[in-house]
């Protein structure tokens, strides 16, 4: 049955729920001793989660402030999105802390990042 409410032409038709994860400097941000393998583990995590399509894309924030990166996650609920975000080796080590926000974006179903 068609909707009786006309659709506004300026609203995207293909919105889908995702999660925006903001990564901020954590309490161990500047501590490198004992964490020499952190960057390779972090990059392996990003690749694994991107290939599994739990992380759709991620990138650094380069203005030198407290925010250091952003990630778009696809998950059925906030608990699962939070689990992925907190499995990040840099979060586990205390170098990053996460801030998770539900968001609506045009569908990213065909969007693919290649590593």
TrEMBL record:
Matching Pfam families: YCII (PF03795)
Boundaries of every YCII-related domain copy: 19-96
Coiled coil: none
Domain of life: Bacteria
SUPFAM superfamilies: Dimeric alpha+beta barrel (SSF54909)
InterPro entries: Dimeric_a/b-barrel, YCII
Family recorded in the similarity comment: Belongs to the YciI family.
Protein name listed in UniProt: YCII-related domain-containing protein
Species for this entry: Alloacidobacterium dinghuense
């Amino acid at each position: 049955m068609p909707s009786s409410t006309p659709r506004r032409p300026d609203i995207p038709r293909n919105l889908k729920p995702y999660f925006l994860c903001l990564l901020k400097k954590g309490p161990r941000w500047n501590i490198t001793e004992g964490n020499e393998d952190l960057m390779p583990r972090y990059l392996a995590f990003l690749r694994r989660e991107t290939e599994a399509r739990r992380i759709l894309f991620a990138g650094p924030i380069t203005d030198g402030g407290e925010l250091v990166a952003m990630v778009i996650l696809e998950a059925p609920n906030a608990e699962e999105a939070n689990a992925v975000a907190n499995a990040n080796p840099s979060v586990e080590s205390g170098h990053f802390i996460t801030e998770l926000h539900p968001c609506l974006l045009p569908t990213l179903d065909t969007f693919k990042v290649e590593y």
